[in-house]
């Protein structure tokens, strides 16, 4: 099977959002902001397009579904932008999946996880991410897509 780096230019970037992020806008807005997931996904598509990329946005509350999406990305996507949400702090399996697919990975958190409870300070995903963006709110996704364009260009 061809690796994504060998595939044509219109291959999208996978934007993957983890558990509870479907509730953005309603969920603890003082921490996560008022933007809905639909709004953030639109921002991702617009930013990707402005940088000559295409964003394929998905969200799941299920660890296995997220892992399957990451495996699929190996041949179907150019790079992964991921907010692993609560699984950041618990999931070795998600970390292993990201390591296995060998794509550029940008980890995003809306909040600054280092300013919050101690259990949020460690993310299993960070060790396999090229870049980590946290504490920039919804704009973090725009920063992530813009930076992904750089990572994708560097990989070519
Ligand atoms: C989050 C931070 C996580 O600690 C939390 O479990 C989330 C969202 C963020 O975007 O700030 O669900 O990833």
TrEMBL record:
User: What SUPFAM superfamilies does its record include?
Assistant: Type II 3-dehydroquinate dehydratase
Q: Which GO terms describe its biological process?
A: amino acid biosynthetic process; aromatic amino acid family biosynthetic process; chorismate biosynthetic process; quinate catabolic process
Q: Which InterPro entries match?
A: DHquinase_II (IPR001874), DHquinase_II_CS (IPR018509), DHquinase_II_sf (IPR036441)
Keyword terms of this UniProt record:
Amino-acid biosynthesis, Aromatic amino acid biosynthesis, Lyase
EC code = 4.2.1.10
* Marked site: Transition state stabilizer: 27
Q: Give me the reactions it catalyses.
A: 3-dehydroquinate = 3-dehydroshikimate + H2O
Pathway(s): Metabolic intermediate biosynthesis; chorismate biosynthesis; chorismate from D-erythrose 4-phosphate and phosphoenolpyruvate: step 3/7
Question: Which Pfam families is this protein grouped with?
Answer: DHquinase_II
Active-site residue list: 32 (proton acceptor), 109 (proton donor)
Q: TM segments? A: none
The lineage's top-level taxon is: Bacteria
Molecular function (GO) terms listed? 3-dehydroquinate dehydratase activity
Residues binding substrate, per UniProt:
83, 89, 96, 110-111, 120
Key word Amino-acid biosynthesis present = yes
Alphabetized Gene3D superfamilies for the sequence: Dehydroquinase, class II (3.40.50.9100)
Subunit structure as annotated in this protein's UniProt entry:
Homododecamer.
Q: What does this protein do?
A: Catalyzes a trans-dehydration via an enolate intermediate.
Which family is this protein grouped under?
Belongs to the type-II 3-dehydroquinase family.
Q: Can you name this protein?
A: 3-dehydroquinate dehydratase
> What is the scientific name of the source organism?
Streptomyces bathyalis
